[in-house]
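A further point concerns the way the authors explain their paired sequence and structure data. Showing the layout once, in full, would remove most of the difficulty. For illustration, here is how one protein appears when written out as sequence plus structure tokens:
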Amino acid sequence: MDQPKSSIAIFCETRAEWMITAQACFRRNFPLVTFYATLGEEAIAFGLNETGVTHLVTSVELLETKLKIPKLKHVIYVDQKKVSTEGYPAGLSIHSMQAVQELGAAVVKPQPSDLAVVMYTSGSTGRPKGVMIVHSNLIAGMTGQCERIPGLGPDDTYIAYLPLAHVLEMTAEISCVTYGCRIGYSSPQTLSDQSTKIKKGSKGDSSVLRPTLMAAVPEIMDRINKNVMSKVQEMSFIQKKLFTLGYNYKLEQIRRGYDAPLCNALLFRKVKKLLGGRVRMMLSGGAPLSAATQRFMNVCFCCPVGQGYGLTETCGAGTITEVADISTGRVGAPLLCCEIRLRDWAEGGYTSKDKPNPRGEILIGGPNVTMGYYRNDSNNQDFFADENGQRWFCTGDVGEIYPDGCLQIVDRKKDLVKLQAGEYVSLGKVESALKNCALIDNICAYANSEQNYVISFVVPNQKKLTELAKQRGIVATWEELCTHPDMEREVLREIKEVASSIKLQRFEIPVKVVLSPEPWTPETGLVTDAFKLKRKELKNHYLHHIERMYGGK
């Protein structure tokens, strides 16, 4: 094997071998270079070339994409399969993970300041950036996170299904290993009994594993929320009425600081079973979770749903809500490992003088703040050290601090667009408001400064839209429905209704819509692995629609 401090890359789905590789690299002081399994070939080639990696750990499935990387000498595959070595460059050796394990190697203890991980973020803009995380960053970040999870220990079982190349999942799993929790490996397609890759009548991974802890991105929670609610809609009138009564009663009890054991036993036991029935805490991160979904998960799954905020650049750490905090929409107070500061952003209209609470750009400082981007000086201006030598990162997110020290994310600098008449529109605010529409599964708002109105691209809810078409007597394929003017009008009508009920400004409400028959997944390249919108890619993807909607053609 190589000398300590030479990097090893991993390009693989979430599975036990990923974590085994990471732990082996940490112990032997090999920096680990991580890539999302869904990053395009070009982006991975860019990252491997930039870091000059000679050893790559991957799965047979991904190996078959036959990456053409000049410096690569060894590829280690994690499956039990036999691999044909034909068609690969002459200087490349291919090994199974078992063969490498048998070689063994002496443990070389890393220093706290040694590089542990170069984590390539799929980034919502431009080329992927490699974030340099040293060992002391990892320890600081996870110390902060673990302190917010009461009773973490060997009695816990964690279900792992998010991408391990994402800082949220990687730090969650390393924390589990540290505290002796069991980890069960799953995937988004096999998570519950209703998941797409589970045969009808078979059990999903959650039912078999019965986890006690779970991390989720809002996209997954929104999906669970919509699934349960569509099942409620199918109930008889009396059952529906009972569910609504029980839901509202428990909601009121939670607000008063109590629980509703009878409702839990009679109404929510079935819902709780969807995730195995033993989940004691759920943590959401990666993107803002809507208040409606947070409340819904809280009530129906009978467990606290904590929201956290952090970035790859801060080793995933920043804030996490306390278990007893039943407010929604907030991301909690700063963790033990860091401090948070707001910086005025006058152009966007956010300052420390704002009433009722100070607002501004969020700056995170502390030992969890990473060392910057790998060989990427042009982007490193977002990091700085203060007079005491503490490192800070400027997040680009806009926050509001409440009197109890909790933070709420209210905007993102990149999401703010100035319309022709001078009004500012926060695209993120419009999207999170309109995601509550029953007809909408996902939405991207778009505006530019030459125009005076907002437009939107929508992934409609197939079930709801098809039902609506039936009621209107429209017979068509799903693709045809999505281009049908009547359906576009219906979606716009619902957008208007929801927008006015949550008091969006007139100029913030999208006036035109494009319906997409295809869902946006990380594989399509239109969203990141944490399901955040990639605005640049979405804009290019819908460019001819944008020209049509703004050209009035």
In short: Residues 419-551 form a domain with the GMP Synthetase; Chain A, domain 3 fold (CATH 3.30.300.30).
